[in-house]
Amino acid sequence: MTRPVLEIVQLGKTFSTAGGSHEIVKNFNVEVSEGEFVCLLGHSGCGKSTVLSIVMGLSSATVGGVCINGREIQGPGLDRGVVFQSACLFPWRTALDNVLLAVQQAHPSKSRKEQIALAQKALTRAGLADAGERRPTEMSAGMRQRVGIARAFALDPKILLLDEPFSLLDALTRMDLQDQLMRVWDTERKTVMMVTHDVDEALFLADRIVMMTAGPAAGIGKIISVPFDRPRTRADVLNHRDYYWMRDRLTNFLEEQGEIQKSARSPQVAGPERVMVRPAFDL
Ligand SMILES: Nc1ncnc2c1ncn2[C@@H]1O[C@H](COP(=O)(O)OP(=O)(O)O)[C@@H](O)[C@H]1O
Ligand SMILES: [Mg+2]
To answer: What is the number of structural domains in the chain?
Structure first.
């Protein structure tokens, strides 16, 4: 069996603040295979970004660690492309120039002409063939996020890490960008770990969904495989006989975890049965 590209091993994170130390994530273990699309699903505040930022190399683990191709990461690297809720573009640079920066990092020995061609190709794949000359202020939020996705793919990273990349967009733009991401992923088959709290997004995009329990000391509640064939369209997914059944179970899991989170936040109103951690459902 080939070794997974990404291994998150016994990961734990504790933040120390003036108010004391807070164990946010505990005993988190996931392996991701080459070309696999994994979604990390969980309630707001459970620790999804904490896990992903450690995988990005932007934050260090308190316990355990992250390996890529068998080597423990020591910080950020060109092997990982990242996309956040907002695209974080350089405002004085055009869309093409923003993507070009990534191409120059990934392919420093190519000629400028080749680099521009690669940047343009990445923009085109992200649905922005004609927007290369626009600056971020001349683009909608959805277009800026497309540039962010184009930039991440242009790095040609081993792994793409996306932290709720569509959560600030309106519903139609979000669906549009999900479709676009699916099309680009279908041609490139990058290894992806994407954080979301949107059940439908996870079911549409992922091969596997890793569901996080409510914090504090959040871990993995359940990992499920998504059975929908690839390439998949939204209609295929919606019409699949398992779709509503799976959706129900994911939603129930999130509701359960939401109750646990509420109980943990207001212990004075929680009876003993409310603070008991219920086992995750079985699929
Ligand atoms: N740098 C930090 N210092 C202290 N606490 C933090 C820090 N970053 C995140 N947290 C806390 O960790 C918890 C999980 O945060 P986060 O990983 O952002 O959740 P999610 O992405 O699932 O919404 C939250 O309670 C948050 O307040
Ligand atoms: Mg987050």
So the answer is: 1
